[in-house]
Structure prediction request, 450 residues.
Amino acid sequence: MIGLAVGAAVLGVLFQGWQAVRYGDGPGAGAWTVWGMLALAAVAVSVVVQARWWPDANPLGWLAALFDGITSWIYLGWSA
Amino acid sequence: MIRVSRYQLVLMLVWTVLATGILTMPATMATFSVRDTWLSSWGILLGGTLCAGLAWCHVRLFPDRSLTAAMELAFGRFAGKLAAVWVVIWLVITLATICREFGVFVTTIALPNTPEYLVVALALACSAYLVYLGLEVVGRVNEFLVPIAAIVFPLLFVLALRWFDWTPLQPVLADGWLPVWRAGVVPAFAYGLEFSLALQWVPYLNNPRALPVDILLSAGISALVLMGLVLITDGVIGAPVAYLNYPVLEVVRAIRVGKFVERLDTWYAMGVVSTLVLKQAAFQTGLAEAFRTLCGTRDPRWSIWPTALLVWSLAYFLFRNSADVSRFILHTVPGYFLFTAVLLPLLVYAAAFFRGVRPASRAGAGEARR
Prediction:
């Protein structure tokens, strides 16, 4: 299910990115659109890779590692 | 382009915060205290005040730019794009969280045999279509909901007052201010900071100069409504509120008048589902605007459907169950939002100030003048 959905998202994004490159305007629109699409595709591929080979890993673990400490500080020392 | 009026803006902001706030905040706050949570609900005002301060800086420096567009002007092209990518990731993760909350709520209370991902797909299709039509249409749908909210919601809670008891709320501040602060962290730093989403809507506002006042007004209304909800849920349910996922729903379920008026929770569920879809639409609009400025295109609509699909799949990939969602909101979101919605914009305005970026005129909505 996840692979299908992400695959659909990537295809949709790439298709729409191509449309944006073709019809978009503004300085460097095309180049940045391509970079943006590639970044999204990379995110989607990494989602599929993690779901397939590391199903138990926490995908938001990096955010927790970055911000749980700050949150605990906001709570004035509380953490579960 | 039809711009969003101040009235529509206030409604959109109120529902953006209260849609999931009604669902999860009373239970999350009860983790720390039941007796004094009505005081903690004013935390929203703290978050709203921070966002109003940011909006004051924003509309003076960038009166016709969204936050992601301002980043490029303040930080330069490369660093600005990187900062905008961070905001995109923030919006995507927040949207995925909202979608998962939506799916869990609907399948728990109304459609237990329907797969959650189908429910979320339908909601995302609705919100994506709204966003495709434009922010002003989202505002108009918000206006349409006002009569329901103004008549039905208060009526439901007045009917619940029959079971209200002051005992669970007394004695006030018996444990001091620490539990009040801790219970107020989620309203202040998770939901209150969602008002900063309005910075992404600046190009679509009729009167961006009034944005700080509108945010303060929305924060005041939201805090007042939340305080009422928390008072009633704590007074009706008492200490067990800490063990319920949807305490407000249980209060509405308790209403029974005579032998024929009962199960009014259907009305409540309809209202919550509608406001949740509007909240999704509000965030999707911000996301589409972020993609537009990131990719330098004129029209934001090209990214709406693909990102809806991405958010749909991430809602199930990022969170294994509803406990994961609660843990994320309680432990990570306050720090994450404080950094992304407050510190990052502050850096943008400081950089713009020291680099001498001058405000662009609204009439010449093209390039900002340096």
Observations:
- Chain B has one domain: 16-352.
- Chain B touches chain A through 41 residues (CB under 8 Å).
- The CA atoms of residues 107 and 365 of chain B lie 45 Å apart.
